[in-house]
Amino acid sequence: MTPERPRDYCPRCGVAYEPLQEYCLECGARLPTNRGVVGVLASGWQRRFAWYPGDWIWPVALFFVLTVAATAAVVAANSTHSSAAGPATATTQVPLGPGATHATVPVATTSTLPNAPQPTITTGPLPTAPGEPTTKLGGPKPNPNALTTWPSGETGYTTVLESLPVTAGRANALARARKAKRNGIKDVGILVSSQYSSLHPGYFVVFAGVFRTQADASASLPSAHAKGFPDAYQTRVTP
Question: What is the pTM of this model?
Answer without folding.
Answer: 0.42
